[in-house]
Amino acid sequence: MVANLSLIKNLAGSFESPLSQNATITYEEGLVAEAVHELTGKSKQAHIAILGVGGIGKTALALHIMKNKAVMDKFKDKSYFMPCEICSDASSLIQGMLQALGLSVTEGHDPYKTFQNYLWLSQDPILLVLDNFETPWNTSGDQTAVQNLIEWICDQELVSVVLTMRATDGPGSHRWYKLGGHSGLPTLDLEPARQAFMLISNSQSENIESLDWLLKEVDCMPLAILIIAQLKRHLSLNTLMKRWNEQKDKDA
């Protein structure tokens, strides 16, 4: 799966026209509804892990969940998105969360205490969406500090967390709700993959057998579908398939 994503990126890189960065693919509504149910149900909090390899659509799904009306109604203006790929340890995670929360630290005060006090004193539900959490988890020289931080956050009664991560399990010993089941986020089924391809490529009709072959070649991964669908705006499907095979031979 990872190898195929690398192939499709190489194919895109060999094409002269720039690809649009505006198109997105979101997962079937069932996964969104599953997450919304966890976040807005009877429990005061939920801790959801969106797990899987890179390019499978974890961030897009997290944002889709975050923008759901029921989620917005519950958390109102207390919903925060934080990209964790810029964080390498617990300290930078705290700084990043303070920035996401819009909090400033008075000179001489401890950033962690400022963060703690905000969560302790909050009277309203808070949603933290921590994207690409594998970066601080895997690169920190003190993983225990990162684990202690995320587990402390999850212990706060009014705080819910949606976390995306390139992994098969959520961080630490905390019990995470794995969206999509035990194996994490699935790839798209063939029919939704076809629909996404047709929509993004602006195609009216395609040879289904050829299209299905190409979609299976890229494992129906959302990011790969996004790339090949945008390439299809400039190339015929047959040409795209030919270029794909040429790239496979080149990278073999």
UniProtKB/TrEMBL annotation:
**InterPro entries, A to Z:** NACHT_NTPase, P-loop_NTPase
Q: Which domain of life is it from?
A: Eukaryota
One Pfam annotation reads NACHT
The segment(s) forming the NACHT domain are: 48-168
Record protein name field: NACHT domain-containing protein
| Species name | Gymnopus androsaceus JB14
